[in-house]
Amino acid sequence: MASLREAVMLIRSSGLGQTLRVLSFTLHRERLERKYRRTFSNQETAWQTPGGLQSTEATLNGARFRFERAELVVDFLATDLARLSWEPGTPPVPYALAKTDWAGVQTSLEKAPEGNRLASQALQILVKPDGGVQFATPAGNILRQELPPRLRGAPEMPTWQLEALLEPREHLYGLGEQAGPFNLRGAIRRMWNTDPGGSYGPQANPLYMPVPVYMGLHPGGSYLIFHENSFPATFDFRESCQVTFEGGALRTYFIPGPPERALQRYTQLTGRPELPPLWSLGYHQSRWGYLNEADILEVVAGFTQHDLPLSAIHLDIDYMRGFRVFTVDPQRFPDLKSLAKRLQDQDIRLVTIIDPGVKQDRNYEFYKDGNQQGRFCMLPNGRPAVGVVWPGKSVFPDFTDAKTRAWWGEGYRQLLEAGVAGIWHDMNEPTSFAAWGGNTLPSATRHKLEGHGGDHRQAHNLYGLMMNRAGHEALHQLRPERRPWIISRAGWASQQRYAWNWTGDCESTWGSLRMSIASILGQGLSGLPYTGPDIGGFSGSPSAELYLRWFQLATFLPFFRTHSALTTARREPWVYGEPYTDIIRQFLRLRYRLLPYLYTLAWQTSQTGFPLVRPLFWTDANDQALWDIDDAFLLGEALLIAPVLEESQEQRSLQLPGGNWYNLWDDQVLTGSKSVELPTNLETIPVLVRAGSLLPLAEKNISTQSAGTRMELHLYPPEEGHIPAPQLLYSDAGDGYGESRLERFQVRGSQGEIEVTWQGEGEFPFPYDEIEVHLHGYRARRAWIDERPAEMNENRLQTGIFQHIRFEA
User: Fold this and answer.
1) Which candidate among 257, 378, 449, 802 keeps its CA 20 to 30 Å from the CA of 777?
2) At residue 224, what are phi and psi to the nearest 5 degrees?
3) How crowded is the C-beta side of 267, counted as CA atoms within 13 Å?
4) Which one is catalytic: 246, 429, 507, 534?
């Protein structure tokens, strides 16, 4: 069905000729697969275990274990980060690694009754005589038990299979982008970046960006696993945790929990995202079908007419000349620079799509230049690997070559000089349209892989990641005074260093709305903090209620964009009329008022790797009642979002984490560690604020940090005797690499008094000239600012910069 939908879109947009090209490519690829199938197949040989242990040797930071048919090297990179490398097999090109210069770790190696125990201060690894491996805490609590791995095939290209036992209550989360429940226990998931064909729904597998990273959580503890292997793989989480890689060495990184600490260590290994420009956290509008400049200006005028804020508008493939990458159609967009300037004057950024497929056209300079320089992927016969995408027959840059990445990067120059603010990478799984057998290049396609050489099986999952790296490096080089911003459909482990992503071409259904939450939570625990769905779904025409509920959810997600397919009804935020337009307006305004909070979360993510959107068990992984919840989430530490996910729903149940929570809309106090029923209506969704929070809201809609505005600090009293962690507020110019400042607020409450202390640091001027403190769930009788009496007005306090405020009930 996916191929049929793709074919319908293809014929409508490109005609019958394109469809015939797709059929021709599919037959050609099938011939190549038959020709090289024997080279790739390991199915004819029997599985073997490593055999008996032959020798053990201590190394500087670990140990080497030699078995009859395999070798295991264990290296401690940190006390709580171990790398286990099983050989033989092609070692990975370290594309995913941001940090490789780890300091030495003192370890001990000793004989034990069950085998050899290798230990650091934070982790014990027991290697058994048959190759089984057990991971445990220093106290001896078992975190994970692996059976001896199995391998088959030729030593230079084996297939590896690793099986780990699962605890009865063990939950598994992650694997990048997935369509299904948050807890992956019981699922089978494929690691092969895939365009599902223009539309997908719950349980689709695989998707655009699965990554081999997951967390295990059980009553005995938790851990994070990263398999540094980009070959096709299958993760079978039904009876046990069985992982099969179809090539390469078996290299695994093991990090013990708790979840937040494990993720912090993992993102130290693979990199953390750069702080994005502030405008990227605003609202984005897009559609496949904005055909020309007049369409764009009409849409922008609609936002002004309906008093709806807008931060970015995206141009899909129609802005290009015949879908040729790095070109602009002179009839449809005669002056892109003038358009970008006109939008910028309204504080709206222009984002343009870029696909990797380069049209095979002798009169196309970019193709000719790349062809002459040998920048495209080749087949074993020395000819270019030719696929079919929107421009027709196309070739594909080999982004696993540094010279190709630099060459490709020059292509962005014209767009950036025209004033384009952000880049949208699409079709970079990579996709080549096919009638059957999957939408990608032949397996025999060759890639340079930084001089190591390899075929498409090894490079396919890396393709989007390396395209994003090329784009990110180009934006840094060509526009060094501004922060790069790229949104990408595909990637791999460490994607967070280079680009955001979105959840692709999901269906316009209530099931897909619910699925979005689980997908975003799982990506966050895979190190991918910036994502979001197309509001309303990509491939259909949602009802007014479904679009509204999707919009309300997306208000609290990192990437906040409406986008839809060419074949769908128009979906600007005002098309459904009242009361929907007014409700959407209120949520849009709330999003922009939340920007100080969101921007601070983004800064924290750049420092820690923590996702903005977090599971409810984030702060208490021991609360098993929270482990299965995938219909609600935390936004940072302060907010809990419980979206409405069913048609005509008037109330919904929610398992609350511990502590007290305030209803954002009416200040009702709810006690946690139990299930509650939350009423709702069309105008709202349940949003709760954690007791002890000091929630910063901008007085008016802002998309840049500018002076002359008022900051509201909304204070929700802490529980008696509880001292919340200091709460942060980060500020800078909203883009670039200039000065910044960080505010630390400490809230304390006892015996009817509430105190707030404030310490600020940094050279950037505090961007708000007025501060208004709003008290919630607490009626203040008197207040003091820096020990001076202050006047309260309707439970609000006007102030400037202060060091200490005290309220008395």
Assistant:
1) 802
2) -125, 140
3) 26
4) 429
pLDDT band at 752 (very low <50, low <70, confident <90, very high): confident
How many angstroms separate the first and last alpha carbons of the chain?
A: 64
Does the annotation mark 429 as catalytic?
yes
pLDDT, mean of residues 562-581: 97
Instruction: Report CA dihedral (726, 731, 734, 736) to the nearest 10 degrees.
Output: -100
DSSP state of 319: G
* CA 479 – CA 486 distance, rounded (Å): 13
Q: Which of 407, 300, 426 is nearest to 352 (CA)?
A: 426
**AA identity, residue 586:** Q
Structural contact between residues 232 and 96, judged by C-beta atoms closer than 8 angstroms: no
Residue 295 CB-half CA count within 13 A:
18
Q: CA–CA separation, 232 vs 645, rounded Å?
A: 34
426 is catalytic: yes
Question: pLDDT value at position 12?
Answer: 62
Under 8 Å between Cβ of 783 and 805: yes
Indicate the SS3 state at residue 171.
strand
Cβ contacts of 628 within 8 Å, gap of 6 or more: 171, 181, 182, 183
- Comparing C-alpha atoms, which of 400, 646, 642 is closest to residue 511? 646
Cβ neighbours around 515 below 10 Å, total: 27
b/e 667-677 (16+ beta carbons within 10 angstroms → b): eeebebeeebe
Would the pTM count as exceeding 0.85?
A: yes
Query: Which whole number is the average pLDDT over 236-256?
Result: 97
Q: Using CA atoms, how far apart are residues 252 and 213, in angstroms rounded to an integer? A: 10
pLDDT 10s digits, 608-650: 999 999 999 998 999 999 999 999 999 999 999 999 999 999 9
Angle between helices 544-554 and 510-524 (to 10 degrees): 10
N residues, the chain? 809
Active-site residue, from 426, 637, 735, 743: 426
- Tell me the three state secondary structure of residue 350: strand
- Annotated active-site residue in 80, 505, 712, 732: 505
Report which residue type is found at 63. A
* The two three-digit tokens of residue 185, written as one number: 């226990």
**Are 277 and 704 spatial neighbours (Cβ–Cβ below 8 Å)?**
no
